[in-house]
UniProtKB/TrEMBL annotation:
<dbReference type="InterPro" id="IPR039426">
    <property type="entry name" value="TonB-dep_rcpt-like"/>
</dbReference>
<dbReference type="GO" id="GO:0015344">
    <property type="term" value="F:siderophore uptake transmembrane transporter activity"/>
</dbReference>
<dbReference type="InterPro" id="IPR012910">
    <property type="entry name" value="Plug_dom"/>
</dbReference>
<dbReference type="Pfam" id="PF07715">
    <property type="entry name" value="Plug"/>
</dbReference>
<dbReference type="InterPro" id="IPR008969">
    <property type="entry name" value="CarboxyPept-like_regulatory"/>
</dbReference>
<keyword id="KW-0472">Membrane</keyword>
<keyword id="KW-0812">Transmembrane</keyword>
<dbReference type="Pfam" id="PF13715">
    <property type="entry name" value="CarbopepD_reg_2"/>
</dbReference>
<keyword id="KW-0813">Transport</keyword>
<protein>
    <recommendedName>
        <fullName>TonB-dependent receptor plug domain-containing protein</fullName>
    </recommendedName>
</protein>
<dbReference type="GO" id="GO:0009279">
    <property type="term" value="C:cell outer membrane"/>
</dbReference>
<keyword id="KW-0732">Signal</keyword>
<dbReference type="GO" id="GO:0044718">
    <property type="term" value="P:siderophore transmembrane transport"/>
</dbReference>
<keyword id="KW-1134">Transmembrane beta strand</keyword>
<dbReference type="InterPro" id="IPR037066">
    <property type="entry name" value="Plug_dom_sf"/>
</dbReference>
<keyword id="KW-0998">Cell outer membrane</keyword>
<feature type="domain" description="TonB-dependent receptor plug">
    <location>
        <begin position="117"/>
        <end position="226"/>
    </location>
</feature>
Length: 917
């Protein structure tokens, strides 16, 4: 048997040798600078034989074609060149002439087939490798903030959420992020994981971002856009690359309340790509980032206009624990009962509720601000035939970052892995992958701090009659008897009741925090145990080579969510919940009028086993070239989103007597008994407490949550003028139906007596996902211009604006966006005698805007911000090494991207790179 296998192997190698009769080698250089040009496509015309140049500009490949041969050299940013050779002339020396790449970028994700960005049927933005190399931002994910139409929410150094067209919040479930064909969402939570797992800094080939609805091509949860990220092919990008960035952040600012102080920032990345032979190649990637994180420090009172000194019920946005709030009137009445002489003092106070909150803990010293991210990737590619490739890859990420939702979550020691196997041919692919997550020791800041307060001193101990509130009430009365006014007496009473309160960071505090945060929610702690998994398989076929009169692409997709939280996120304590999705899609396109007109139609069918009815979505588009390099585009897109697993099934403790709940009617009835104990809106309960009028109570009517959808129309115009100016302008209008938002409601399990709402400890508050009844409209417009100023100087500017009307004011809709954005960028990719110098400067401006966070965490105004990033770099050509000095937010004017999120200061850095191109 061994001899047979060996004979077959020798025969295969011999056959390869016989076919490769000629070996072509050479080097490609820049005609201006004489520098080697990497990643140049070198192919034999009308053949699949060829190679890519390596980091030294060298190429080598075999061909069995007969002479004369026409060799084609092509690369973005250079003029395509053809060279005819009549015999083996090794090595071939080729000089490529630089050319403007404006309007020449090729995109794939707009229609699942390659086309020039300029003629895309929908709005699409693109970032390439050269953009990343010359960027002043710390990583490619931060670059997205400068793209037309993009909104971001920065929860921490390691967690940024991206969206388009207005609906902006941390953990956006209506935005799809695809990495090398894999949906990058967390299997349980269903929102993209940002840059926590994905491509490393050195492995990004390109990023394409589709604005707005994209469900017809990419399925559920593509309502707010889709980002497609593609890693570098090891056959194309070879060699060892290293990038080391060292910086400093938290540089003191007189106007910023930053408690951290100057501290180091580290980011180290390495990539090794190797083409072993014409059939086999691999790559290895690793990146480690570490820094002291930004701190959320908003002290705005969520319960009114007062401060901690003036409002006994003070509950700061980023002070955790103050959500425990109790009306002390029962304690006042008890004091008057035991001492009737206090009646003249107490009776005037009983005319209204007197709510008092427990004392909260500030984020700094409570949450660990040591941000760490590590991710690694390995990929193996084998060419079974020249046009059939097998790909195997694995990506793993872990670390500690913070994100904002209904409270601040510190995802500590989380782990996520994505593993893929794929067969990829010229006209089809078959891909299967899995995503496996482990939430680690995630700390839920709000509930944990409330339980810490209860642990060191309970709010009220029914067995002893003692507790924080009885002590507070006694001290309040004592202070008022001594002559203090109510406000001063309240503050003094708090100081007394807080005697013995462990300081954040103390040994006692840390012991309580560790115990509570490491105890599962189902056992009285706050730890959730998310071990959910996602499995996905997809097949796509391009029939264009078989059907000549029209281009046809079709595909099918199967997905399984295996929800496994041990009852801490979902009602899955007994066994995991399985949710299946089945999809099929097709796209038809046709070119007419000498290829000047392109018509397209896409259709998709999706079925989710949580919901009875399937969804059919569509996209119709037309692109017309009215003049050379001038295109008008129009599209209609129908998109939808099945409620995410969280929106449908969540069952999570988020505070003292507070729950986050999915909108499934079965869940609300079977688990929370909404059919027996009527839920009312939290706002009306607060009004009832103030006015003691039961008519104030507004009932919340329960309807089973269902998919939301949007119909979007877009008209755009893109043009390349004189090969130097690229212009794009667009307008869109969208109509949303069954819009999913959130409502804060409460009920009183065990009683239907409305008076039970007077005592905060007797009712439970819920943050529930539900569909709004009326249609919601969004609209907006945008414009961008890119100018090639010659000699490798460039300038870019974009302006965009998004708006909403007819919104349901009873919902938290997450339309958190300013009235407009303005982004500017000026730079040069190579100047000086040898073009070794480069620089880039960008500015992002946003006026102030309203921002609302679900779960009652915060709502208010985000101040206006103008953020300037800049860098200057120099390349040592002979040793393939570059150095870059720069900074983000170089003015160090601290800003925030959303309520309850951190204030972001400047980061100043030096970056050293080897073999980065």
């Amino acid at each position: 048997m061994r001899k047979t296998i060996l004979a077959l192997l020798v025969f295969s190698l011999t056959t390869i040798g016989l076919k490769a009769q000629h070996v072509i080698t050479g080097v490609v250089r820049n005609s201006d600078t004489k520098k080697p040009v990497p990643v140049v496509s070198v192919t034999v015309k009308e053949s699949s034989d060829g190679d890519f140049t390596n980091d030294n500009g060298n190429f080598r490949f075999g061909t069995s074609k007969k002479f004369p041969l026409t060799i084609v050299f092509s690369s973005v940013g250079f003029e395509t060149q053809e060279l005819v050779i009549n015999s083996v002339q090794n090595p071939i020396n080729v000089l490529l002439k630089p050319a403007s790449s404006l309007g020449q970028e090729v995109v794939v994700s707009a229609s699942r087939s390659a086309m020039k960005k300029l003629e895309s049927p929908v709005t699409i933005e693109r970032i390439g490798t050269k953009d990343i190399v010359n960027s002043p931002q710390l990583n490619y994910y931060d670059m997205l903030q400068g793209l037309k139409g993009v909104d971001v929410t920065v929860s921490s150094l390691g967690f940024t959420t991206v969206t388009t067209r207005g609906f902006n919040t941390s953990g956006n479930t209506n935005f799809t992020q695809v990495v090398d064909g894999m949906d990058n969402q967390a299997p349980g939570l269903n929102f993209p994981l940002g840059n926590a797992i994905g491509l490393t800094q050195l492995d990004v080939d390109n990023i394409e971002l589709l604005s707005g609805a994209s469900s017809a091509l990419y399925g559920s949860r593509g309502l707010n856009g889709t980002m497609v990220m593609t890693g570098k092919d090891p056959f194309k990008y070879q060699g060892l690359s290293i990038l080391v960035t060292q910086g400093v952040n938290h540089v003191k600012s007189k106007k910023a309340n930053d408690p951290v102080g100057a501290s180091p920032y580290y980011d180290w990345t390495i990539r090794w790509g190797k083409k072993i032979n014409d059939k086999l190649a691999f790559k290895l990637n690793a990146q480690y980032t570490r820094a002291n994180d930004w701190v959320a420090s908003d002290t705005t009172n969520k319960n009114g206009p007062g401060s901690k000194y003036t409002d006994p019920n003070y509950n700061g946005v980023n002070l955790y624990g103050g959500a425990t709030s109790v009306d002390i009137n029962p304690f006042l009445e008890y004091a008057m009962l035991t001492n009737p002489d206090l009646a003249p003092l107490i009776e005037p106070m009983l005319g209204q509720p007197n709510y008092v909150s427990r004392t909260g803990y500030a984020e700094y010293g409570y949450l660990d601000n040591d941000a760490r991210l590590f991710k690694a990737n390995a990929e193996l590619r084998y060419k079974i035939r020249p046009k059939l490739e097998a790909i195997f890859s694995g990506t793993f990420g872990t670390g500690s970052v913070v994100y904002t939702n209904d409270t601040r979550y510190q995802m500590k020691d989380f782990k996520v892995g994505q593993y893929r196997a794929e067969l990829k041919a010229e006209n089809w692919f078959l891909r299967t992958y899995t995503t496996q997550e482990n939430s680690g020791n995630t700390l839920v800041s709000g509930p944990t701090s409330q339980l810490i307060n209860e642990a060191w001193k309970p709010s009220y101990d029914a067995n002893t009659g003692d507790g924080w509130y009885p002590q507070y009430t006694g001290a309040l009365l004592q202070s008022m008897i001594s002559g203090m006014d109510y406000t001063s007496a309240s503050y003094a009473a708090r100081q007394y009741a807080d005697i013995g309160r462990p300081e954040a960071g103390s040994a006692v505090f840390n012991q309580l925090k560790e115990t509570i945060s490491h105890t599962p929610i189902t056992e009285g702690g706050t730890l959730f145990l998310d071990r959910s998994k996602l499995y996905n398989s997809e097949f796509q076929y391009n029939f264009s080579h078989l059907i000549k009169f029209v281009e046809v692409i079709a595909g099918v997709n199967w997905r399984l969510y295996n929800l496994n939280s041990k009852g801490t996120l979902f009602p899955d304590k007994e066994k995991p919940i399985k949710v299946n999705e089945y999809s099929a899609y097709a796209q038809i396109s046709k070119r007419l009028i000498n290829d000047r007109l392109r018509l397209g139609a896409s259709f998709r069918y999706d079925k989710n086993t949580l919901f009875e009815d399937p969804k059919v979505t569509s996209r119709l588009s037309t692109v017309f070239e009215v003049a050379k390099e001038h295109f008008i585009r129009f599209s209609y897109q129908n998109a939808y989103s099945f409620p995410s697993n969280i929106q449908a099934l969540q069952n999570t403790l988020v505070g003292y007597n507070q729950l986050a709940s999915g909108g499934s009617k079965r869940l609300l009835y079977d688990t929370y008994h909404f059919d027996q104990y009527v839920p009312y809106t939290l706002k009306s309960v607060s009004e009832f407490q103030q006015a003691d009028d039961a008519t104030k109570l507004e009932r919340f009517y329960v309807n089973d949550i269902k998919p939301q959808s949007v119909n979007a129309f877009e008209l755009g115009y893109a043009a390349l003028i004189g090969k130097r100016v690229l212009f794009d302008v667009l307008g869109y209008y969208s109509t949303w139906e069954n819009f999913i938002g959130y409502a804060d409601v409460c009920n009183t399990p065990g009683t239907t007596d409305p008076n039970a709402f007077k005592d905060r400890s007797t009712y439970i508050q819920y943050n529930i996902a539900f569909n709004g009844a009326q249609r919601v409209n969004t609209y907006g417009y945008a414009a961008s211009v890119n100018v090639d100023l010659s000699r490798r100087f460039f300038a870019k500017a974009n302006y965009y604006s998004d708006h909403i009307k007819n919104k349901n004011n009873s919902q938290i809709n997450n339309f958190n966006t300013p009235s407009y954005h303005l982004n500017l960028e000026v730079g040069n990719t190579g100047f000086g005698k040898k073009q070794n110098w480069a620089f880039n400067t960008s500015m992002r401006y946003k006026p102030s805007y309203h921002y609302e966070v679900g779960g009652g965490l915060a709502n208010g105004t985000v101040p206006a911000s103008a953020v300037i990033d800049a860098q200057v770099g120099y390349t040592f050509t002979k040793i393939h090494t570059g150095i870059k000095v720069g900074g983000t937010n170089i003015t160090n004017k601290y800003y925030s991207t959303g309520m309850a999120n951190p204030m972001i200061g400047g980061v100043y850095y030096v970056s050293l790179s080897y073999n980065v191109f």
